Amino acid sequence: MSIHSSLWNADEWATQGGRVKADWTNAPFVASYKNFKAEGCIWNPASASSTCSPGAWQTQELDAAGRNRIRWVQSKYMIYNYCSDLKRFPQGVPYECKQSRFL
């Protein structure tokens, strides 16, 4: 198992319409992961089930207070939401944008 990260020039679409420019003077950029622990699940298409235990993190949800905190952070700090970028997706937004925001 591995983790891949990428960085791309998003000046045109992810920076308030180009008003906030990316600062490339510190390139190359390096990312590292410390104490990363992944718990994978194996999907069985025949039974439409996985090996994840019922208590796995994937089954957890935010409570009302958690959803309100997320909304507050988004309203104060989120610059770009690709699910709202209809020019980027003229044929319709991606699947995950059609789901509940707080699954």
UniProtKB/TrEMBL annotation:
Ranges of residues in domain Xyloglucan endo-transglycosylase C-terminal: 54-97
Cellular component per GO, a single term: apoplast
One Gene Ontology molecular-function label: hydrolase activity, hydrolyzing O-glycosyl compounds
BP terms from Gene Ontology: glucan metabolic process
InterPro entries in the cross-refs: Beta-glucanase/XTH, ConA-like_dom_sf, XET_C
Listed name of the protein: Xyloglucan endo-transglycosylase C-terminal domain-containing protein
Lineage per the UniProt record: Eukaryota, Viridiplantae, Streptophyta, Embryophyta, Tracheophyta
